[in-house]
Target: Dipeptidase
Amino acid sequence: MTHIQSYIKENKDRFLNELIELLKIPSISADSAYRNDVLKTAEAIKLSLEKAGCDTVEICTTDGYPIVYGEKIIDKNLPTVLVYGHYDVQPPDPLDLWNSPPFEPVIKKTALHPEGAIFARGACDDKGQMYMHVKAMEFMTSTDQLPCNVKFMIEGEEEVGSSNLAIFVKENQEKLKNDVILISDTGMIAQDVPSITTGLRGLSYVEVEVTGPNRDLHSGLYGGAVANPINVLTKMIASLHDENNHITIPGFYDKVEVLSKEERAEMAKAPFSLDDYKKALDINDVYGETGYTTNERNAIRPTLDVNGIWGGYTGEGAKTVIASKAYAKISMRLVPHQDWEEITQLFTSHFESIAPKGVTVKVTPHHGGQGYVTPINSLGYKAASKAYQDTFGKTPIPQRSGGSIPIVSLFEQELKSKTILMGFGLDSDAIHSPNEHFGVFNYLKGIETIPLFYKYFTELSK
Ligand code: BES
Ligand code: MN
Ligand code: MN
Model:
């Protein structure tokens, strides 16, 4: 029987080349100029699932980009693993900060990736991690080692909120029926510190618009006498945090899950160096809510951040002007039990209430989703833990992540099954940033670990 390690050794170059071909297609879901490329990527995924041994693969159309669905059912009495991933990517801008073009993948060595890393938009988030599952499937089917049933659901709108996937899931409960959902779209602590993500934050994303006078004004003739929307907006935003960096929106913390001392002590055991963290980001200190550590601030505490702010004159030189309007895009990361629609409502009422006379305020909700936590005693978690134990020689550490995959809580609600988040990226892989990359070691380690998850999950389910 072919062993996964020798299979990887023999096929390593092909595994890399296939991923590189996939990364060349700019499947940017946010930008309609790339529509054909997004569609082309769905076709490429379909073909790869067929080649990997799925019995049926379909491109399921939605009101947005299609969902690629494939399956191989070997025995109705065996468990079924549903793999989810996304083939869309974030826009690559700012382009001038990339050391090589985002859709011309190259493999380069880095300090953390001595075996090389593939540099391209989507390398880690999520084409590279999603494709590990396709290659693991290929290994299992071609060597007659697939122990259970598999369903794949790969979508093209994760980076823009998964709203059509939510509809698809609600309408296809029977088709998607499964015993566990498996996703690789998160990270791990370090190359020699495997971890399984046990929590994701929720999200509420809004855009705000502050309007003052009916037209842009001369800042000398009118300055000081009318509200300047940019001054007002920045003051309003500044008031959303107090001196302890606590969010000031009334009711914001009402449903926040409070972790026990023991749980926080357990979390603090995960290896972490504040010095390395600061060095990696070139900052002289960290910043955040009083009373919490860095790891707590970005995992178990909710946050509010401005993602973009604009208005007025930003061109070359100086123009003396009071703009008629100012805008900002604001995201709130939420923790389990906070309801994103309720938080959006609380934000909206509060933001409207703090607007001074002389301006009007409009809040437009974008998208959102609930947070997620999963226990470490489920069959799926145990199977994943055993798989990592085999391939890394260490028990993986459960870790809550600060990122969001809003569809995960909907999976649990609609499909009634637990999601196991086996992420193989590093925080330093620059997802959503220029020079995104994914380690060759991580890619191959993922392909090696996934079949063991199937094996142990099937065994534990007996
Ligand atoms: N894969 C990421 C989320 C992620 C990354 C979670 C690393 C944990 C660790 C996903 O593609 C993503 O970027 N999600 C968005 C939310 C989405 C609604 C646009 C996010 O977290 O900003
Ligand atoms: Mn992702
Ligand atoms: Mn992403």
